[in-house]
Amino acid sequence: MAAQQQQNIDGFLAAENEAAKVILETVKKDGFILVFSHLDADGVAAAGVMGKMLSRLDARFRIRVMQWVDEKIIGEVIADKPQLVILTDFGSGYLDLLNEKIPNVKVVILDHHQTTSKVVNPNFTQVNPHLFGIDGATDVSGSGVAYFAAKAVNVSNVDLAPIALVGALGDMQDKYEQRSLRSLNEIIVNDGVAAGLLKVEKDLIFFGRETRPIYKMLATTTNPFIPGLSGQETESLNFVANLGIPLKQGDKPRSLCDLTADERKRLCSALADYLLSKGLHLEVDNLIGYVYVLTKEEPNTALRDAREFAVVLNSAGRMDRPSLGIAICMGDRKAALEESNKILEDYRKNINKYLGWVAEKPERMRELQNIYVIYGENFINEKIIGTVSSIIVSSLANNEKPLFAFANIEAEKAAKFSGRTTEAALRRGVNLGDVMRLASEAHGGKGGGHNIAAGAQVPLDKLDAFLKTADELVGRQLKGEKLASHDNA
């Protein structure tokens, strides 16, 4: 098994070398390069990796971040006449469109989503872990695929390993024991550690370990969810104070990263005892996990902890300010970082507003036979629908029904769908990437993604038909049926 895994990795890295050759040849001829990337944390991180690599080569390039590629984007490519197009964190799902519209343009695809296209075009260089038997949902992200290409271009780009790691965590690839990263992601982690840019620790794994006062960190935790503390600031404050752990150092509130080893041990033991007293044995296992600290970043800032860094990038991309995220990935720690902190605050307010809105009326989240559906319609921003579905699906963790959420894009006369599934549904064979692709194509749309998370764009007048098909396809998967690529339920 280990030999096969190494063979898969070697094949993947050989494909990265081919992509690097195409990039270097274009730069050598002073060719203009257009980079397109996805707008989530992973896509923004991938764009940042590409931007830093190309600027170091003194290349002529432009970066655009977006939700998807369509004929309008292809029109821009034709008008700009680039010598090379690079697609990061998407692209494999658009091979047929690219082959139909711009077959003579040189294209490099650095993606990690499931692909079914049989297109073979000598102008297209595709690097995708799925082509080498590596799982793109858990073992390498889009920014990771971009990182290995950058490293193949020049080994000095190894200093971009932390950004690729941030992208992987933004894509929630820490699915292995104690929230660790494995396979190709582990190579990136090792590169970062060897370069002195990253420290990996085992610690309490609460979000906000660098930036939130200890009691606020407890009060805002949802993973693990702690009844009586989650959502309860006063109770959380009393819980910490009763352990004899000082809440402040002078005037400054203390965060988890400020605690001594003894204080952390005390806090961890007390939380474990508290959870056990509530009968929550499984949640105890979720208290401790792997934490990825970016050692060159300032302590007590959102960029120091890789998971918090990912939220900064996600908010920039989804609040229509991806250039801020790219600038931070490329090294800006002044104006861009300051502005992104304001954007992050607005992003959090929006998420809370949307979650409250969904909870307000039962008809906004409906249960079909095999799936749940959030009807975001014209209220939820289509760029934030994915974040909303990720948060809500975590409350359905033991449920075997996936969650579909959509928001209307009136200008396109389309609905943007974001699907998330649970570990329980995955174990029963649910693959949302296949469901989104097949159901959307059956109704004049486009979709795809990973087994655990996927998306689609569907015409508004086909909304109900799409949901009916998706519900049927998930039902068939839950019964153990594998969907063939020609299926449309």
Structure summary:
The chain is α/β, with parallel strands linked by helices and 489 residues long. It has helices spanning 2-28, 41-56, 71-80, 95-101, 142-153, 161-170, 184-194, 214-219, 233-241, 261-277, 281-285, 306-318, 322-329, 335-360, 385-394, 423-427, 432-441, 463-478; strands spanning 32-38, 60-66, 84-88, 107-110, 124-127, 198-204, 248-249, 252-253, 288-294, 365-367, 372-377, 403-409, 414-420, 446-449, 453-459.
Q: What is the overall pLDDT average?
A: 92
- For the record, the CATH architecture of the largest domain stands as Alpha-Beta Complex
Query: Alpha-carbon distance between the termini?
Result: 36 Å
Largest sheet: 6 strands, mixed
Strand content: 15-25%
State the strand order across the main sheet.
10-11-12-13-15-14
User: Total domains, how many?
Assistant: 3
Architecture overview:
This protein is of the alpha/beta class. The protein has three domains: 2-159, inorganic pyrophosphatase (n-terminal core), CATH 3.90.1640.30; 202-353, no CATH class; 361-478, Diaminopimelate Epimerase, Chain A, domain 1 (Roll). 45% of the residues lie in helices and 16% in strands. It has 18 helices and 15 strands. The strands form four sheets. The chain has a six-stranded mixed β-sheet with strand order 10-11-12-13-15-14, sandwiched between helices. It has a five-stranded parallel β-sheet with strand order 2-1-3-4-5. Strands 6-9 form a two-stranded antiparallel ribbon. Strand 7 (248-249) and strand 8 (252-253) form a beta hairpin. Helix 2 runs antiparallel to helix 6 (161-170).
